[in-house]
Amino acid sequence: MRRALVGVAVGLAVAGCTVGPNYQRPESTAPAEFRGLGPENPPGPASLAELPWWEVFGDPVLHDLIREALRQNYDLRIAAERILEARAQVTIARSFQFPEVNGGGTAQYTNVQGSLQQPPQFGEAFAPAVGFDVSFEIDFWGRFRRATEAARADLLSSEAARRVVVIGLVSDVATGYFSLRELDKELEISRNTLASRLESLRLVNLRAQGGVAADIDVRQAEVLVAQAAQVVPDTERLIAQTENALSVLLGHNPEAMPRGRVLVEQITLPALPAGFPSTLLERRPDIIQVDAQLAAATARIGVAKSDYFPRVFLSGSAAGGGIWIDGNWAGPQGLFAIGPSFTIPIFNTGRTGAGVASAEARAQAALDQYRQTVIQAFREVSDSLVEYQKRKEFRVQQEALATAARDAVRLANIRYTGGVTSFLEVQDTERQSFDADLGLVRSYRDELLAVVRLYKSLGGGWQEG
After folding, report:
1. How many CB atoms lie within 10 A of CB 274?
2. Which sequence spans correspond to the domains of the chain?
3. Is 66 within 8 Å of 173 (Cβ atoms)?
4. Omega prior to 42 cis, within 30 of 0
């Protein structure tokens, strides 16, 4: 007994040896600054991503929609359930580092009847017993510690994956809502344009009846009415489909969505700073996720390499019971046993080496995935910075175009009423103005969506307040 306990103590004392590489995060290759920085996003320590989403997006109705999505979205629920699964796997992996104790009991009854032999034999016996078994594999080479390390890294990966879902969900709801408000404005412009053109058609008909306008003027006015009229139902279709998509994000059946601020009042931030590129590695959850996956894959190399070495087990049992025979009781009786055992790998047709090679290949793939995710993150930020700057410049020019087009319509109508030009000039300027107004609304939407993409690419929006 004493020798066995001494052996256990010695085994536990040397169990600190852990095979396999220890994880170290790969060196960063972050650029000195993001490409595409403009006057709206100067370099500096501050970053747009540090703001919670309810400070970036100013519409209270949008706030309510995002909060509803964070409560009800099924993708987010699935991600949360995967975190619970990963936590359970940590407990399972860690449990192998400790002894396993199982209890049991028996109560065997025996009845022996006589036979044809003389003298006849009779008798009854009852033998109850209870006890427990202990089994424990001493973790000499760190097999179970590496497995626990991998399970904890998987847990961190699943938590980061949930943040990825949160960021995507917040940006998707904001994108859908801004698109919906843009379509609302398109529908308003289309209906106003249709009403204006119907009035123009009425006036042209009156001029034609008075012999002042030709039939071609009437037909051209009808063309303008039809062009505006066909935009209305198509825009209504897009509105319904956008509301349906938002409903799914909110975990609802398709339904109408509430409205809040108009498009031009959605985001009023004075500046959109990008921050330092080096902080992106700590802020973007997809980088944190692949970093954790790389750590898990590295730990599993140690699990695979431990198969090269002997496995040492310690098992024991203790039991107590007695026996009752024909009314006579013998007992109680006790039993205690403990002892080590081991297995040594000798030949398994290269299975252990293949397992190590497989684990190392997975770790190398995880390393490449990490590096690709990092450079892709820098590319997304750069793309977003350039997009926001150029979308804003485009919107400024579109405003000038829409203003000029409206004035051209006014002048064309004056010229036509004065008999200086034909209705064809009115038709052309009307079409240009209508397209310019719709383009202006879309340019506001595109500028807003560029802000959303910049915010997402910088790693902002995971807060769930």
Report:
1. 28
2. 18-97+139-309+350-457, 103-137+313-344
3. yes
4. no
> How confident is the model over 43-78, as pLDDT tens digits?
777 888 899 999 999 899 999 999 999 999 999 899
Question: What pLDDT, in 10s, does the model give residues 246-298?
Answer: 999 999 999 999 999 999 899 888 788 888 888 888 899 999 999 999 999 99
What is the separation of C-alpha 53 from the centre of its chain, rounded to a whole number of angstroms? 16
Nearest Cα residue to 164 out of 251, 262, 283, 66: 283
All residues at 6 or more sequence positions from 172 whose CB lies less than 8 Å from its CB, including other chains: 249
Whether the Cβ atoms of residue 377 and residue 287 lie closer than 8 Å to each other: yes
- Sheet containing strand 311-325, edge to edge, reads 100-112, 123-138, 311-325, 328-343
Q: Are strands 123-138 and 328-343 parallel, antiparallel or unpaired?
A: unpaired
Q: Where are the alpha helices (DSSP H) in 210-254?
A: 215-249
Q: What is the CATH number of domain 18-97+139-309+350-457?
A: 1.20.1600.10
Tokens 């007994």 locate to 1
Enter the tokens of residue 410: 């006014």
**How far, in Å, CA of 30 to CA of 375, rounded?**
8
Residue pair 32/274 in contact (Cβ under 8 Å)? The answer is no
Instruction: Check: pTM over 0.90? Answer yes or no.
Output: no
Instruction: Locate 289 and state its tokens.
Output: 């996720």
Q: What would the two tokens of residue 263 be?
A: 């498009």
